Here is the input.
Amino acid sequence: MAVTLNDVAVQAGVSVSTASRVLTGQAAKFRISPETEQAVRAAAEALSYRVNHLARGLRLRKTNTLGVVAPDLSNPFFAHIVKRIQSAAHGHGYSLVVCNTDESLDLEVEQVSLLHRKRVDGLIALPVGQRYDHFEDWLETGVPLVLVDRCGDGLDVPSVEVDNYRGAYEATEHLLAAGHRRIAMIQGLPGTSTNTARVRGYHDALAAHGVPVDEALVVGGDFRQQNGYVETKLLLQREHPPTALFATSDLITLGVLDALAEEGVAIPDDVSVLSFDDFDFAPHLRCPLTAVRQPREMMGELAVKLLVEQFDGGAREARRIVLRPRLVVRESVAVVRPAPAGERVDAAP
Here is the structure.
């Protein structure tokens, strides 16, 4: 038979409320003497009693858990963000219920509903990003919400994202400065805010340098490894293949690298490669990859901060935090002609 709080109170010779206050860390608040606190804790240890956090949470309408939904935890970018969310949440006394949506909007809707039924105190969503009406439904419950990465303009909630337009613009400009004109972009999931901004940055950089946009060089349809692999294979078969590949996610880049290795294509001698996202082993490859680095850990840290602010009585202000990515130049982009005056192609230190 399970040991109850009443058993602990009887053993310690105190009231149930006193035992509860001691075991939930409120002895000082209620001015319970050190002797009484010690007696309660000794009784709890002797009886092997453990606080039922679920029951306590239901009484207080608080579970000390946060929900997290992410589109693909096999993607190092999302995995890093969730890891940082967990660390920051733990520092505030919260545990996580993490749901992987596998880039499925239907699964995302289902899991958001599941998290509501589990009575999480707040939700951090890294959404698939094609539809947001289920998050509007969430807001009607009054439970705090923060969006990360693929943030819809029409949703009035706190959010953290990266300036994807700027990252793609600077990446494309770097390739142009190295003399590349046939630059293929292997895009992610069309219709998402991140992909739309990156494609627009690519287009605008080409236009700013007087290079006509060849829409046939914008290929792909999701952020997965298979996308990078298949599209690279097809690009290499063209009569006039691109001289540079701009892969727009970590997993797409892995697919690109697999395809190039199978075809015996050398980086950067045969083709240059630039990646959006800077996975941990990018500097350690045989040819270290030039990449757009996103501040992943900062994104997770800020997401928790924006959520906790709402717990502390702050209004749900729709603060949109946009972080700046950084182009990290390594060795995977070849200079195919001398760069024009004023344009530099630097190597990373």
User: Anything to note?
Assistant: Residues 76-91 form the longest helix (16 residues). The chain has three domains: 5-51, 63-161+296-323, 164-295. The CA atoms of residues 290 and 330 lie 5 Å apart.
